[in-house]
Amino acid sequence: MKPWPNEYYPNYFFAIERRGSIEIAPEAQKDLPKQSNHWAAKRKEEFLCARSLLRNSLETFLDQPFVGDLKNKPDRQITWPDNVLGSISHCREWVMVALAKTGQCKGIGVDVEPLIELSRLKPGLIKKIARPQEINRSELSDQEFYTLIFSAKEAIFKAIYPFTLEYFGFQRAEILELDTLNSFFRFKLFGFEMIDLKEVCGHYRKTDSHIFTIVSVQ
Question: Distance between CA atoms of 32 and 119, rounded to whole angstroms?
């Protein structure tokens, strides 16, 4: 899958690969957390594929071999190399990585989600992930729209958490603009006035079965 245009994210690095096409790197084994001893084989394989793509991406982005440690911190955040900001997301079918140099942005977040099953797209679920004002008035189907809302808010959290160290829920963000022609979105944020963060923007890609989102905080 092609990454986002360079004019939106100059000098960023993106990798989006089908999980089945990724060769597991031996070095990725050392990234496994202790609790992985209790994981099912499929979950462990998914994790190793994601870390393998991440390691390969870092080598390309930094233009040098990478042999460092990418273990998760206690808050489950990755220990990134010096001067690198990054984000990773994976599901059963896809792995997605985004990287930037420190100074290019304050934070970056990506997310990939399978479309929410129609059988689950009920008022109760919609209420959990969307604010009352977040109603689909776009050309997207409701299935695509609410998956996009969910995925974008996940990406927003990943972009903001590293410099706020604050967990927050789906009600702290509300979509203000959705441009389906340019695959662009803009969200209003609530409760981040102390760091002067009122809005964030991002882009998305969609397939017949998945939504991919990226958010970069400037």
Answer: 34
Distances (CA, A) of 217 to 115, 154, 167, 192, 198: 25, 14, 17, 13, 11
Measured CA distances, 94 to 1, 58, 218 (Å): 10, 18, 27
Strand order of the β-sheet with 94-101 is 13-18, 94-101, 84-90
Query: How buried is residue 125: exposed, middle or buried, by Cβ count under 10 Å (0-12/13-18/19+)?
Result: middle
pTM of the model: 0.94
If one counts every other C-beta atom within 10 angstroms of the C-beta of residue 184, the result is 14
Model confidence pLDDT, tens digit, residues 158-213: 999 988 888 899 999 999 999 999 999 999 999 988 788 999 999 999 999 999 99
